[in-house]
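Schema walk-through. Below, the input block comes first and the output block second. Nothing else is stored per chain. Lengths vary across the set, and this one has 129 residues.
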Amino acid sequence: MEIFKKVGEGAKTIGESARSFGKKSSDLVEIAKLKYEVAKLEKEMDNNVSALGKLVFLQYKGEEGLEEEIERLVKVTMELEAEVAGIQEQIGKFYPSPPVCPECRTELPDEARFCYNCGNKLNRDEAQD
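--- output ---
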């Protein structure tokens, strides 16, 4: 009977490991999708900024009637910036920030009990960003 108990415990451990691995791999897929979306949006922003530069140059040379298009491109680019910031925030949730010393604001290893910069003893609740 003891062997069946050990086999059952081993299977439970393997099952938990498989679930953990599955979650980590799905997180990696989600992060990759988000990073791809950021790259796509940043490319669009670069194109908009390039177009804005051309429009401003043409306006400087004396061409008229470009104000509306300049205004539209500026607004669209600012919206894209905000969208990228939101996606970057989502990506950041997958990577928890490291603990920070409340005294000197130095980033510390997760297992630190004292700040290696100023020597401050860390309360684990305080050592966050």
